[in-house]
Amino acid sequence: MKRQMTGAKMVVQALKDQGVDTVFGYPGGAVLPIYDEIFLQNDIRHILVRHEQGAVHAAEGYARSTGKPGVVLVTSGPGATNAVTGLTDALMDSIPLVVLTGQVPTFMIGTDGFQEADTVGITRPCTKHNWLVKDTARLADTIHQAFHVAKSGRPGPVLVDIPKDVQFATAYYVAPAQAKTSHYQPRLKGDQDAIKALVEMIESAERPVFYTGGGVINSGPAASQLLRELVEATGFPITSTLMGLGAYPASGKNWLGMLGMHGLYEANLAMHGCDLMINIGARFDDRITGRLQDFSPNSRKAHIDIDPSSINKVIHVDVPIIGDVGHVLEDVLRLWKAGGRKTNAAALSKWWARIEEWRKVDCLKYRPDQKTIKPQYALQRLEALTKDHPSRYICTEVGQHQMWAAQYLGFDDPNRWMTSGGLGTMGYGFPASIGVQVAHPDALVINVAGEASWLMNMQEMGTAVQYRLPVKQFILNNERLGMVRQWQELLHGERYSHSWSESLPDFVKLAEAFGAKGILCKDPADLDDAIMEMLEYDGPVIFDCLVEKHENCFPMIPSGEPHNKMILGENVDTKNAIKSGGAVLV
Amino acid sequence: MTELKIKKGSSKHSAYDLRDPNAAAEERHTLAVLVENEPGVLARVIGLFSGRGYNIESLTVAEVDHTGHRSRITIVTTGTPAVIDQIKAQLGRIVVVYDVHDLTVEGHAVERELALFKVAGQGNDRIEALRLAEIFRANVVDSTLESFIFEMTGTPGKIDAFAELMRPLGLVEVARTGVAALSRGAE
Ligand SMILES: Cc1cc2nc3c(=O)[nH]c(=O)nc-3n(C[C@H](O)[C@H](O)[C@H](O)COP(=O)(O)OP(=O)(O)OC[C@H]3O[C@@H](n4cnc5c(N)ncnc54)[C@H](O)[C@@H]3O)c2cc1C
Ligand SMILES: Cc1ncc(C[n+]2csc(CCOP(=O)(O)OP(=O)(O)O)c2C)c(N)n1
User: Fold this and answer.
1) Out of A4, A16, A107, A114, which one is annotated catalytic?
2) Chain A within 8 Å of B40 (Cβ-Cβ)?
3) How confident is the model at residue B16 (pLDDT cuts 50, 70, 90)?
4) What CATH number is given to the structural domain containing A399?
5) Residue A59 pLDDT exceeds 50
6) pLDDT at residue number A543
7) Which of A36, A145, B8, B13 has its CA 20 to 30 Å from the CA of residue A415?
8) Is the minimum distance from the CB of A484 to ligand 2 under 6 angstroms?
9) d(CA A215, ligand 1 centre) in Å
């Protein structure tokens, strides 16, 4: 049965038919007809944010923690431009989003109309795809396509720009089943010969390592399960990027910890010294590879990735496998089990012995302090007091605290860790925590923040309070742009140009001003009680944890250096840590 | 702690030594990109090249299948083999791109370009221009007492060669279409 309806109603109908339960948004003139339709129904919940950037990050948090696309609705012009940072963030981290923007009516496009912006032009490089819909008859179909593109293959953000006259006009609604099938159908199954080659490499490897990434999370919980089986079956050590934490449990016995610039010593040395590297859904980011010529010089490399452009982009691999992690791992495991295959046990135990030596370095040790809270200590206590919570979700902002969170918190499940990796967007974590809490009302959602990052989207306190979202804002307050300060110490002769946070608000009063709870803690002796108070409070909390102001985040591979040139924390001489050649790198 | 003593303008400050000194040589490739003919598709392709710093030597685009809404973009680009592979993979990621063919790899493609040359001159130069045009099978499509416009199709190399010959004979302006290309054979 075909139904006629207005474009605005179509938008809401299409969202319902796509199974959307939540929209993050902010109204304005160019989307008023859609807001009218939202008002007239109860199936879709609209969360009113305080800034469009917040809407997009909230949708990212929602998406990353559920595996479903996050949906955003904003107005034309400034509404759309405010969404740009979030779109770029989602593109870099492969987060599926469907963003709907209002636009001036079609007959005014190009006239510099009020709140007109070339939204599809501006967002073309920061979306996976975008559409300007000029005809109501094509609106529903386009929205269905948008969901298909956002979710398929390597996920990403898409945007549909909808002029106001298209929202008012009527046409026949097209249901998802009737929508035009898209030619966009990325391949999921890997090449069988390549998979066979990988299995044979696994059999003969002497010093193997799994290097896993966000692609395992993108592929869904089943992929994480298969990964665990494969690690179990082979007994190989496994490390992960920042984006892949939780795919293999941090409590698992083969876990080496995160790798990369601020990754663990044992993980990086295993990458450097391996003879077989199996990259599963990671993209050889520069935070991982360091100096390219010296990256894992003696290994053969296999790479499973759904996006052909990720293959051989920066590192040449011997066995590329284009496909979805879940599908490929299923085939690998089937082949492995069918052949009654065995790994090289003798070599493997020697390899593990070497790894144990590296582990003994205990690269995360730091100098404890009786009087000041060390940020590492704060996170260790947070971990101890929350890790047994049945549904804990952690978000972060960007900076040192983010790296410490990755180092000191353990994730045993996928989709529990939300962080801005590729773009490194300060201001991501707070709104993301709101999105996670909306999706999981009963969960414990903590945003580990730096005070500077947190201030970037602090207006979202209003959202948290309005919707009674009990998000815990755990701010490691060093009164510094800590990560910037660290680089200035290491690289710019300790000239701390504009890297401190002056005139900070009183966070307790700030919380109270919004109708939330504030907790201040500055003494290590009070920390546990203060954290418990935060956990027990049923509502949003700002936890102002005053920490050591000059702590550096180690281990660290200075930019432009190879993996085996890490600087460790204890007694380091940070002088000239970064060579001049590395100075041009970020 | 002392500061790093890096002289201003010092070459040590450069990332040059971080690049691969053994980088492969650049190659020239002709790519045929079949796209959905929708608004903005050319901007997507061009934006990809400018955004990622790839070269475009020539680019042509036109609808080739009206009912199927398909256009064909022919791009001549240069890069190391790894960069060429990246370009193809990146083009393939664009949602409205159906197919990417590397005509340079798929076998010697037929490549043609159309060019118009305005040549102004008198006396012997004018005669010589006309004679050379005949050798190159260029047609005269406009003539005045002081000038000709020649029209020629051929490979980019042939057009370059003709332009070189016309230069001393009074070449005023050249307009070129960019390369159109098809792979040889029945497929
Ligand atoms: C201050 C700061 C410091 C950082 N330091 C570090 C660090 O020390 N260590 C670190 O690891 N990171 C670090 N990062 C993060 C880093 O910048 C990158 O974001 C991260 O390393 C990329 O992770 P990834 O390789 O897993 O790729 P992602 O960005 O998660 O990409 C996923 C890859 O998997 C593929 N893929 C997606 N879906 C599928 C599927 N279904 N099947 C198969 N493949 C799929 C994609 O095509 C892509 O290639 C830091 C970030 C910041 C802001
Ligand atoms: C939007 C944005 N602007 C600037 C930066 C550069 N930057 C990276 S980390 C950092 C400092 C972060 O300070 P804070 O949030 O207090 O965290 P800390 O490093 O002190 O833990 C800055 C400015 C960024 N990542 N994002």
Assistant:
1) A114
2) yes
3) very low
4) 3.40.50.970
5) yes
6) 98
7) A145
8) yes
9) 8
Kindly list the residues from chain B whose CB atom is less than 8 angstroms away from the CB atom of residue A313. 86, 89
Residues of chain B neighbouring A580 (CB-CB closer than 8 A): 4, 6, 10, 12-13
| Residues A284, A200 share a domain | yes
pLDDT in tens, A373-431: 999 999 999 999 999 999 999 999 999 999 999 999 999 999 999 999 999 999 999 99
Whether residues A261 and A296 fall in one domain: yes
Ligand 2 contact via A452 beta carbon (within 6 Å): yes
Q: Are residues A409 and A470 in the same domain?
A: yes
Could you tell me which of A425, A465, A413 has the C-alpha nearest to residue A449? A425
State the CATH number of the domain containing residue A221: 3.40.50.1220
| Same-domain status, A354 and A392 | no
Between the CA of A421 and the centroid of ligand 2 the distance, in Å, is: 13
pLDDT, greater one: A526 or B6: A526
What is the average pLDDT across A298-312?
A: 97
**Nearest-angstrom CA–CA distance, A340 and A324:** 25
State how far the alpha carbon of B63 is from the alpha carbons of A412, A576, B71, in Å. 53, 58, 4
Higher pLDDT, B5 or A5: A5
Our CA-based measurement puts residue B97 at a distance from the nearest CA of chain A, in whole angstroms, of 9
Whether A292 sits inside 8 A of B14 (CB atoms) is: no
Partners of residue B6 in chain A, C-beta under 8 Å: 580, 583
- A155 and A261, same structural domain? no
Query: Of A178, A204, A234, at which residue does a domain stop?
Result: A178
Last residue of a domain, one of A359, A389, A408: A359
pLDDT digits (tens, 9 = 90+) for A265-281: 999 999 999 999 999 99
Does residue A241 contact residue A213 with C-beta atoms inside 8 Å?
yes
Given the CA of residue A85, which atom of ligand 2 is nearest to it?
1
CA–CA distance, A456 with A51 (Å, rounded to integer): 11
- Residue A292 resides in a domain: yes
State how beta strands B171-182 and B110-120 pair.
Answer: antiparallel
Is residue A198 included in any domain, yes or no? yes
Q: Which atom of ligand 2 is nearest to the CA of A477?
A: 16
Residue A241 lies in a domain: yes
A194 in ligand 2 pocket by Cβ < 6 Å? no
Known active-site residue A180: no
Query: Is the distance from the beta carbon of residue A33 to the nearest atom of ligand 1 less than 6 Å?
Result: no
The beta strands (E) that lie in A405-540 are given as 417-418, 444-450, 472-477, 517-521
For residue A505, what pLDDT is reported? 98
Q: Specify whether A220 is located in the same domain as A160.
A: no
User: Are the CB atoms for B152 and B139 separated by under 8 Å?
Assistant: yes
Rounded to 5 degrees, what angle do the CA atoms A267, A271, A276 make? 130
Q: Averaged over B45-52, what is the pLDDT?
A: 97
For chain B, which domains are there?
27-102 (3.30.70.260), 109-183 (3.30.70.1150)
The answer to whether residue A576 scores a pLDDT higher than 80 is no
Q: What digits encode the pLDDT tens for the residues B78-104? A: 999 999 999 999 999 999 999 999 999
**What is the reported pLDDT for A340?**
85
Residue A160 and residue A223 in one domain: no
pLDDT tens-place string over residues A118-147: 999 999 999 999 999 999 999 999 999 999
A107 has catalytic annotation = no
**Residues A76 and A144 grouped into a single domain:** yes
* CB A317 within 8 Å of CB A282: no
Q: Is the CB of A483 under 6 A from ligand 2?
A: yes
Is A571 a member of any domain? no
Q: Which helix (H) or strand (E) holds A6?
A: strand A4-6
Q: Which domain holds residue A255?
A: 192-359
